Amino acid sequence: MSAPTAAGRQAWAYLSRVVEAPTAALHALLAEHGAERAAALVRTRQVPPGLRRSTEARHHLDTAEADLARAGALGGRLVTPEDAEWPGWKLHPFATTVPAPRQVPVLPVALWVRGPARLDEVTDRAVSVVGTRDVSGYGEHVTAELCHDLAADGWTVVSGAAYGVDGAAHRAALTAGGPTVAVLGCGIDRAYPAGHAALLARIAEVGLVVSEHPPGTTAAGYRFLARNRLVAGLGDGVLVVEAGWRSGARSTARWARELARPAMAVPGPVTSLGSTGCHQMIRTGEAELVTTAAEVVEHVGRVGELAEVSTSPPRPLDGVDAALRPVLEALPRRGSASPQQISESSGVPLDAVRAALPELELDRHVVRTEDGWSLRRGAGA
Amino acid sequence: MSAPTAAGRQAWAYLSRVVEAPTAALHALLAEHGAERAAALVRTRQVPPGLRRSTEARHHLDTAEADLARAGALGGRLVTPEDAEWPGWKLHPFATTVPAPRQVPVLPVALWVRGPARLDEVTDRAVSVVGTRDVSGYGEHVTAELCHDLAADGWTVVSGAAYGVDGAAHRAALTAGGPTVAVLGCGIDRAYPAGHAALLARIAEVGLVVSEHPPGTTAAGYRFLARNRLVAGLGDGVLVVEAGWRSGARSTARWARELARPAMAVPGPVTSLGSTGCHQMIRTGEAELVTTAAEVVEHVGRVGELAEVSTSPPRPLDGVDAALRPVLEALPRRGSASPQQISESSGVPLDAVRAALPELELDRHVVRTEDGWSLRRGAGA
């Protein structure tokens, strides 16, 4: 596939403006006619019945040239399915055919991006990290730690640039020197939320700001809900750090599952409202419990990337054969005991006690005394 | 089944002394000959080969009469499978046949108990609550809250009287005025740990202290491991509140699963070592995540006892039909917009916008103005 011509790119830009929410019917039209012809058909209202409603309100708005210029002035561009950097592999599970499978998100027409990173490369190994705007100190700390570790391990952090968990995720990735991708529900020229203008500018300098809407598109609730499918779509899995009962993060995790990608949630204190959504998701099987970046990688990573098995320090009795332990534990803390006494106390037959004691002596757990056997000092029985 | 005669009870007491760890072979002997004859056969070493080793060390120790007297002096008694208060239904899944199914715990010979409660009644609706001795402030708080709520709901709290989670569980149940059962790895006349002497005395006053070992038996590590199967066996499920990587609590939860009963774990901060075992159990599917007493009851309760579905307060847009939301959100925060402007901004066809606006007006979300339509003040769009 070769990059579109200038006219072709304008057709893609026009379609991304005209269609608020892409439909499988539009993708069918694109597949049949290509972008330029599809755009001409939409412009002249020569579309199949299934496309009339969704293209009616804006078919006359042809701001493609201005939109492309506006993006370019910001260091941005329109990435189309014909461009080399189109993340085709990542977006492969999205729906493009009629009838669209129920619940499966529909492929965006094209993606407006702003920043130096290549869209396909920066999302090649990526984790989407989302959560409540109303983050707790705990949630902020855990988000920062997990995202720092993911970034340091070479994973891109994808999020939605919202206050709370999203912002903490982007900041931690930037701090670790890793790339990060912010997917917006408004145009890439917009700073939403306004308080994250500096953060978005920084992301546009080193990572990528992404939107399916053309420049100038204002933020709206339903756009952020649709945006969530792209947050899920650009990551290898979705990690929810903190979420209340009702949370956009939960819908992003649901998109991940529809795309057959892992949804993960971080637990927290049951006394914290901020973790209720995460706990509920784990309870219902909507998400897997994870506690470290390594465990996240175990879910999203390629074959062979497994979390290390945690180990704990050995305990005093660890070196002792299970069969010998009752004998060792039957010895009094002070003084000595005879094999007979040890047998009665432990319930181990006398001959087995007699056999065990020299073994325990060899292992320096017990010592022979005048009255029988006693624990060796310093042996941690 | 009628209660055993005095001689019969002495036979049970003798066997509970002779056998450190009951085996399916012993249960087979009991089933074939009854307690008195089985005791006589053990005493005279006329046992099948499979029982020789386990009865050898103590077959000559006949302290049954003294043990029963000692228990009685403490307000205790020996509950045998022939007694009406034997919790046969609860202990039904335990192994009694040869060969014993691998991993299934073996039925205790009999149970020494101390306290006013009837063993079968007090364990009829019971949850076993266990966890680390090294409990955190969070773990102590959560244990207290969960056990208080369980006790207030009529559930008996079963635990092991250890420091940490166990102690907090017993105390919370007592505070709520509910019965609680402490299962020990030593005799019921022993206070182990010593620091819980007062707590154990209190439990013996209003609940029940239980052990499969006769009075005088000292505490030993392997006895506590074997005890864990009884903690699991006397509850309808096992709840682990806090547990490190290696924890007796985890083994108790494993016994619950072997008995086909729910194992549950409470999550906590991922930054706390005390919750690592719980998180690991949830991750591996060894335990279900629970956060409230109601969720515990959902797992252990009889049919029909379901946790209430938590609800959250309604949001401003909640009452708005999903199809109308884009129209509502396209209205400017200040000033007015024409249906045409709203159609272009939202991507909703003009006729649909024209149909939606009067509906939104009726629901008092928008008002008609001279210039078009605007948001109604106070309507939380």
TrEMBL record, chains A, B:
<feature type="domain" description="Smf/DprA SLOG">
    <location>
        <begin position="79"/>
        <end position="300"/>
    </location>
</feature>
<dbReference type="InterPro" id="IPR003488">
    <property type="entry name" value="DprA"/>
</dbReference>
<comment type="similarity">
    <text>Belongs to the DprA/Smf family.</text>
</comment>
<dbReference type="Pfam" id="PF17782">
    <property type="entry name" value="WHD_DprA"/>
</dbReference>
<dbReference type="InterPro" id="IPR057666">
    <property type="entry name" value="DrpA_SLOG"/>
</dbReference>
<dbReference type="InterPro" id="IPR041614">
    <property type="entry name" value="DprA_WH"/>
</dbReference>
<feature type="domain" description="DprA winged helix">
    <location>
        <begin position="312"/>
        <end position="372"/>
    </location>
</feature>
<dbReference type="Pfam" id="PF02481">
    <property type="entry name" value="DNA_processg_A"/>
</dbReference>
<protein>
    <submittedName>
        <fullName>DNA-processing protein DprA</fullName>
    </submittedName>
</protein>
